[in-house]
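Suppose you are handed a protein chain with no further information: no name, no annotation, nothing but its sequence. What can you learn? This example shows the usual starting point.
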Amino acid sequence: MRRDSKRLWITGASGLLGSNLFSSCAGWEVLGLHYQHAAPQSRGPSVSIDLTNYISVKTLLHDSPPDAVIHCAAISDPGACEREPRTTRRINVEAVLNLAGLCADRAVPFVFTSSDLVFDGTRAPYRETDPVSPISFYAEQKVEAEIGTLEKHPAAAVCRMPLLFGFRGDEPAGALRGLAGTQPTAELRLFADEYRTPVSASVGAGGLLIALRTHHGILHLGGGERISRYEFGRLCADVFTTDSARLVPCRQSDVNLSPRRPPDVSLDITKARQLGYSPPSLREQLQAARNAWIERGGLL
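A reasonable first move is to predict its three-dimensional structure. Written in structure tokens, the prediction is:
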């Protein structure tokens, strides 16, 4: 049967990034792929599938063939990857490479979402050509998936994403968790010596669509501002009018971290800017997220 629009698969459709992609895909017939939870407030159908089941994925490719795939699904909790490296590797590496290979066989454009955590944080800001230096199982899995994706599908785009923030449905998610929506009832300790280049999930989603249209290879989709986790928390408190007095600065050395966290994985986004990626200021992104949340009935 003839389709009037192209079909885009979004894996990890129930996550922060995947669910925000639904709102950015005008002109596409979107099919969301999730495991347990459907994408909140999605603008298209969503199906439950175990991406580690090669036969199931291949069958779905035959029954609902995509014109492009953006792969957001992952177990993104570094602690979980440290505790269960073999189990998490099935979704973070094996499922990625299987899907990349299936897409390559059919000449389907493929975008894989990686992470700024592939770097050890000692030589920021990082460009796409800088050598990776993972210091956790999660980061090692992302590196392995990056390399394998481009080996199987040389025309794929591998997008390294930064610290993300936003709303998943009506719930603050990512770096906004605990900083928006309700007044904190206890102190929130935030690192003053850990630096990232955060971006909202909606802006990051727009960057993925740019990569899908224009880029092959590795691309950094960070925000335009380097900021510590503590200063980011203070900015969130200001925009969302929460009690900043409960935000307490601390240092990474004050906490027994497992796995270790890199001190500065700020991303250089020069290449992405040349392709048309232009993230607004962090304050503007936070205000946009706040306004959209209020429009959906969120309360401050």
